[in-house]
Design brief:
Length: 356
């Protein structure tokens, strides 16, 4: 992948669902890439409040509160609203409209083969109880991305199947409506007259951070997360609970797939110290408790400056940031929608979106 920006800045798009505040998985999986990319790319980061309806449709206060929390978390992490456009999903209608067009370009069977969808249904215990809208959300996600015509989408590994479907739909749209030949390379779609680029996933430093349960991906919905906003005591407590894979203390230490080692690797900055800890653990000179304590300290050291910054951001600041960003986001998404409709021969009138 070529990360070097060209003269006209390439675009980046990604978002988080307000099903809770942000956690360490978000940080290493996607936020770090956003921080690096906001310097050189035209970045769009959004709170996917419409997607939160898939699993918490009745919880209107919760979705709203988490929308505010997430923006605070972003800014606390160093995402800069002057460099990146931060916006709210529900106020960008072009996305919902594109969802309709894209839904027609994706087979039902293809959608249900998406492993992320299957995993979510299983892991979140949705059984047969998911809404029709739950199946619409991956299509909506395709529209979230393509509305901004980005080159890159910084996400964790779990999102790769969604990005793969996004790429398929971009190609199909360009082929059906913009006369792009099937033989055209992904990177040349726009040059060949396509409305949409074929965007690439940009996976984080840690592709999939495990939760403190030691098995599932750390996730807002699985009660296994360490949140960016957790006080130091809570972080320590959660670290003490990490499942290291060891059945009893008489068993030898588990060296592969051990979540405490994963956290140390992700958060201990002093790499020499890390190597020493590892070596001592392998020889059973130190045990799980020692490593858990070290992990808690490393995580707290990482979170302290973030939490300090977070206290300075008010709810009103968040609304101002979102209003400003959503205006800009609409301008880009409306342009995309107009181009897509024109290509599909649905371009009857021009329109503008404005906020009071
Ligand atoms: P939910 O449980 O509601 O699905 P989530 O914790 O999976 O929430 P999302 O809002 O779905 O969070 O994901 C936001 C972004 O963070 C996505 O790019 C996703 O890939 C990334 N991400 C989430 N969890 C992890 C993780 N454990 N490791 C790496 N990246 C992650
Ligand atoms: Mg998720």
């Amino acid at each position: 992948m070529n990360d070097a920006p060209t003269a006209a800045k390439e675009r980046v798009l990604t978002g988080d669902t307000p099903t809770g505040s942000l956690h360490l998985g978000h940080y290493v999986g996607s936020i770090e890439n956003r921080l690096a990319m906001q310097e050189a790319y035209e970045c769009y980061f959004f709170v996917a409040n419409l997607h939160a309806l898939t699993t918490r449709a009745k919880d209107k206060e919760g979705i709203r509160a988490d929308t505010i929390h997430i923006v605070k978390d972003w800014v606390a992490c160093g995402i800069d609203p002057k460099k990146a456009t931060l916006f709210i999903h529900s106020e960008v209608p072009a996305i919902a409209e594109l969802t309709w067009y894209f839904a027609m370009l994706l087979g039902y069977g293809r959608l249900m083969k998406n492993p992320t969808i299957k995993d979510e249904i299983r892991v979140k215990g949705l059984g047969e109880e998911y809404s029709f809208g739950f199946l619409m959300y991956p299509v909506g996600q395709i529209a979230d991305v393509l509305a901004f015509r980005p080159s890159f989408v910084p996400v964790g590994e779990d999102q790769v199947p969604h990005i793969e479907m996004t790429r398929e739909v971009a190609r199909r749209f360009n082929q059906y409506y913009c006369d792009v030949a099937g033989s055209v390379d992904d990177k040349d779609h726009e040059e060949a007259g396509g409305v949409f680029p074929v965007p690439e996933a940009k996976i984080g430093r840690v592709a999939r951070l495990t939760g403190i349960d030691g098995t599932q991906k750390m996730s807002k919905s699985l009660n296994n997360a360490i949140y960016l906003n957790d006080p130091p005591k809570v972080v320590k407590k959660k670290c003490n609970k990490i499942f290291t894979g060891r059945g009893s203390m008489d068993d030898p230490p588990v060296l592969k797939g051990n979540t405490v080692l994963e956290y140390l690797d992700a958060f201990v900055e002093d790499r020499e110290k890390l190597a020493e800890l590892r070596a001592a653990y392998e020889k059973s000179e130190i045990g799980d408790g020692h490593l858990k304590k070290e992990a808690g300290e490393a995580i707290n050291a990482k979170l302290e400056p973030l939490q300090e910054r977070r206290t300075k951001i008010s709810d009103d600041d968040v609304i101002d940031i979102l209003k400003d960003g959503t205006r800009r986001a609409n301008s880009t998404a409306e342009e995309t929608l107009a181009r897509a409709k024109e290509a599909a021969s649905f371009g009857f009138f021009k329109r503008e979106i404005s906020f009071k």
